[in-house]
Amino acid sequence: MRHLYESQRAMRNMRRAAMQRGVVAILDVGTSKIACLVLRFDGPEQFRSSEGVGRMAGQSSFRVIGAATTRSRGVRFGEVDAMPETERAIRTAVQSAQNMARVRVDHVIACLSGARPRSYGLDGQVELHGGVVGEPDLGRVLAACEIPDIGHDREVLHAQPVNFSLDHRSGLADPRGQVGGRLAADLHLLSVDAPPLEALLYCIKRCDLEVAGLASSAYVSGMASLVEDEQELGAACIDMGGGSTGISVFMRRHMIYADSVRMGGDHVTGDIAMGLRVPMTVAERIKTMKGGVQATGIDDRERIELGGDSGDWDKDRRTVTRAELIGIMRPRVEEILEEVRARLDAAGFDQMPSQSVVLTGGGSQIPGIDGLAARILGQQVRLGRPLRVQGLPQATTGPAFSAAVGLSLFAASPQDECWDFEIPLERTAARSLRRAAKWFRDNW
Amino acid sequence: MRALGFVLRRAGGGVHDPAPSRWHYRWQRLMLTPMFRVALRVGLPMVLVAGAGALWLGQEANRSLVLRQWADLRAAIEARPEFTVTGMQVTGASPALVAATETALELTFPVSSWELDLAALRAKVADLSAVRDVRMAIQPDGTLGISIDERRPVALWRHGESLRLVDEDGAMTGLIESRIDRADLPLIAGDGAREHIDEALALFAAARPISDRVRGLVRMGERRWDMVLDRELRILLPEAAPVTALERVLAWQAAEGVLDRDVVAVDMREAQRPTIRVSQTAMTLMTNARSAQGAGG
Q: Per-residue pLDDT tens for A248-278?
């Protein structure tokens, strides 16, 4: 915990330094595409409240001056699979974004979509000495949260305090300055597998970039595509990516649960390629141009040319109906959504007061998926698109870029993480003493 | 076969990898670095030009060529009539000093004004003993104007075998061969005479009634003057107020003609007790006359 605390703090300082320099890059390494945005921070927010624009989520403090997307290579399930390939793809994206921005970027904020995220809810409580809650008390109460055994080779990606309670009053967003006897905090901790994380960091480092921040892609796409009241009242964001589908549940402006299903649009493409015996590129093209999940009568009559240049005339001249294509795609999409449903049920999403679901990510562009999702995930399903940010090219405003846009918001105004607070040293010293005592008890 | 060839072509590196190579990527990033771009735009041309220049100047022939061209250019400018000095014009000096100045300057005209170091030339002229002060300027008509404030000799100073001309400050202005050359100047002699030349001049002025008899002044023991008249007659003047003492002697001369008598020295050193030393002949005559008078009486 201490090591991670230090490294995350270092990353946070680097983010601050990057903001000082004014230029920071956003890197969304996904399974199907790698997006890189170059943000320029012009200082304080430009809009005033008199102009009828609220504080917003910090998106008015920066401007996108470079954007580039490239086909992802060497990434499977949102995890780096072939490092040299991924490194080349990152280089391609970063270079073209840099050239568009005409500025060199050194700091990059990246997100991770795979790596088996797992959520933990932690709580801790401390007695208040002075009666008034101060900044050090927040650090103490966060340090008092007992870290569960997150498993071997796993790292903490997010550790956000989601709730504070003072004596019997719960639901405090910011207890500082209030009077009470006992302060308790709820902490949402998200852990991921360390090896994919390290592989991603290594790839970024090989591109001569410094990591100024890391975030879960499910979290940041929720930040980008959920509107304010959805974040406040409670909603789930389903980010249907290429290799993995991220799930994040928000309530009272905090992420309280995140998970990922290791299935995505690439599996649909694979099914089409296998079912129709066409190359993956052709399958991808057919899926994006003609795909769907709701078959209607006219789909039986719409024939799709499969094409090909195998030299076998019969093979190259095949056609399929759109209904057949939908018949291949629908079971896989259903499977993904049902898996999502299962994860949400396991997390207790059905107990939430508001159960709206927002579909985003590239996979949510399949025609008719909202109807299908409404059957599986409940009636309050909508398709989400990321927030509009200044300077973002039209081509990158689609739902496939909600993680990139969310990462920009994350860069501009990150939510509090536990490493933003000063954790008192004596607490950790006491804990290591306690750990030593535990080791003695276990071994003697 | 066509399809197989197609596949082989595709597999054999025919597909272009859109990713930049690691070095290309680094190069691009370097080119986007502001400092590097400035260095490339400004620094590199400077280094290249300086390097090429240094390489070219590294050849001895090129270097001498440059120096020669520079010297030619310089000479061409210096030789322009605007900068030519055709002669010198000395004012305020005697003909002998003019000749001495020309000898000292060692200039051959015409000469370019760039080559004239006026300060050094001025120092040379100022070093001449007869020059008190000198001003030099190149005049608009292209002559070197030398305005000399010459020392005027006021006395002759006999020092050893030589006769020197001395001005009122006591500075020597020249040598002459014989007394006849400057018969108009009074003569002084003795150690320390030069330092008290104003006193000597005052004495000579006071001695104007007997000026035809005055031979000169001798400084005695570096403290007082002796005025030497003809017939080796000396007037021994006191250290303090010698002019007053001399005037007393002159008053005697006017009243009693004391200097016309056979006197060797008039000693005025003690103001209360002026003494006259008569010559040996007169002394003998006087003694004889007295004894004759005594014998007769």
A: 999 888 899 999 999 999 999 999 999 998 9
Of residues A137 and A108, which shows the higher confidence score? A108
What domains lie within chain B, and their CATH numbers?
Answer: 81-150 (3.10.20.310), 192-291 (no CATH)
The architecture that CATH gives domain A118-193 is 2-Layer Sandwich (3.30)
At A114 the three-state DSSP class reads coil
> Which residues of chain B does A98 touch, with a Cβ-Cβ cutoff of 8 Å?
28-29, 32
Quick one: pLDDT at residue A2?
Answer: 53
Complex-level ipTM beyond the 0.90 threshold: no
* Terminal alpha carbon distance of chain B: 185
Cross-chain Cβ contact B29/A102 below 8 Å: no
Q: B118-126 and B95-105 are packed helices; what angle lies between their axes, rounded to 10 degrees? A: 130
CATH number for the A265-330 domain, one of 3.30.420.40, 3.30.450.30, 3.40.50.450, 3.40.50.2000? 3.30.420.40
pLDDT for B297: 47
Strand intervals (E) in chain B: 84-85, 87-91, 111-112, 131-138, 143-150, 153-159, 162-167, 172-176, 187-189, 214-220, 224-229, 234-236, 263-267, 275-278
B33 contacts A104? CB cut-off 8 A: yes
Are B33 and A70 an interchain contact pair (Cβ–Cβ within 8 Å)?
no
Residues of A in contact with B6 (CB under 8 A): 309
pLDDT, one tens digit per residue, over A282-328 is: 999 999 999 899 888 888 899 998 887 788 888 888 999 999 999 99
Distance CA(B154)–CA(B165), nearest Å, equals 7
Residues of B in contact with A70 (CB under 8 A): 18
The domain limits of chain A are 118-193, 265-330
Name the strand (E) or helix (H) holding B23: helix B22-31
- The residue among A21, A69, A95 with the most chain B CBs within 10 A of its CB, best to mutate, is A95
